[in-house]
Design brief:
By secondary structure, the protein is an all-beta fold. The chain has no helices and 24 strands. The chain has a four-stranded antiparallel sheet, with no helix packed on it. Strands 17-18-19-20 form a four-stranded antiparallel sheet, with no helix packed on it.
């Protein structure tokens, strides 16, 4: 998806428990987890570098996963209330086919009595970014991948896996083909998974293509749609994505409306992002969707704090933000 923070040593890398009171608690749900007030947050829930977040609620706690940073292949945090977070740790042991240091964008679901993680890693054979799958008996890992090759590896590379379980219980994998690595506009795909999530069924369905082929185009997407996330509301499926270059002031989050988990989909954000910078959240990217202990939908995403881009005097980090997600007359509303 990008030249990752996994290759950086950040001054803010102290592995300490963090309290970030961006949310106000409203009531307590099952398992003691707080249900948060559905208003647009005013600050990150975790202020350090945590790109491409994915959050689940399991075992009475929230578990957040992210792209590797601070010397970790991947990152993981836990919380009881979405406000106070644990120390960061690494939940995965990479297989032999994966080159360390290029591990991105994990997503985790519970299937067949196990927790299944989909993640991006560099394939040693082709030196392309591809998608692997690892399993664990616990949401907090350790996740192990015993495969000899990636699960998904298209010719330009395949990244940003997003596991999605449809209302009928059928699991799907949504991802991006890494076309921009070879100068082409990017595409989003979906394919059904087996019941245990360890293999693909049938063939991939095309969901969306970036609406610009030229990176100097006035289109805000700049030939890139990536980091997909899917959720169902009413009779429609909503495909959220990050658009534009992740490390520039033009990126944001858009969405498309789909008739099924495998499409067809119609882009609703061609003219501009659905969500751009708001308050202290600068140029959000990497959306993912989860339900809290009460069933309320939320969107987790990364946004720049301390400046757009890594390094230099104004460089920042992509911190973790979480906001309630609702739908009004068929349109998504953040906060």
């Amino acid at each position: 998806m990008r030249l990752r923070a996994a290759l950086l040593t950040l001054a803010t890398a102290g592995l300490l428990a963090v309290t970030a009171p961006a949310y106000a608690r409203s009531q307590t749900g099952s398992g003691g987890a707080a249900i948060v007030t559905p208003s647009l947050s005013t600050g990150p829930v975790y202020p350090k570098d945590f790109p491409d977040p994915y959050v689940i609620y399991a075992g009475g706690q929230y578990v957040a996963y992210a792209t590797g940073s601070n010397g970790l292949q991947l990152q993981m945090l836990t919380s009881r209330d979405l406000v106070n977070w644990s120390n960061v740790s690494d939940p995965i042991t990479l297989p032999l086919w994966a080159v360390p240091g290029y591990t991105w964008a994990p997503g985790v679901v519970q299937l067949g009595g196990k927790f299944v993680m989909y993640y991006t890693a560099r394939y040693l054979v082709t030196q392309k970014q591809c998608i692997g799958v690892a399993t664990s008996s616990a949401a907090t890992g350790p996740f192990l991948d015993g495969s000899s090759k990636p699960l998904v590896c298209q010719t330009p590379g395949s990244i940003d896996p997003y596991p999605y379980i449809a209302p009928n219980g059928v699991p799907y994998l949504v991802w991006k083909s890494d076309d921009n690595s070879s100068g082409q506009r990017t595409n989003l795909w979906s394919q059904r998974l087996s019941a245990d999530g360890l293999s693909l069924i049938g063939s991939a369905s095309h969901l969306l293509q970036a609406n610009s082929t030229y990176h100097f185009s006035p289109s805000w997407q700049k030939s890139i749609v990536e980091g997909p996330a899917m959720v169902q509301s009413g009779s429609s499926y909503y495909l959220f994505y990050g658009g534009g270059y992740w490390n520039t002031s033009g990126s944001g989050i858009g969405y498309a409306v789909c008739s099924s988990p495998t499409g067809p989909c119609t882009d609703q954000s061609k003219a501009g992002p659905w969500v751009g910078s708001h308050g202290a959240a600068v140029r959000p990217q990497g959306p993912s969707i989860f339900r809290d202990s009460s069933g309320q939908l939320h969107m987790a995403y990364a946004a720049w704090t301390g400046g757009v881009g890594y390094g230099g005097p104004t460089g920042g980090v992509r911190s973790l933000w979480i906001d309630a997600l609702t739908f009004n007359s068929g349109k998504p509303v953040l906060g």
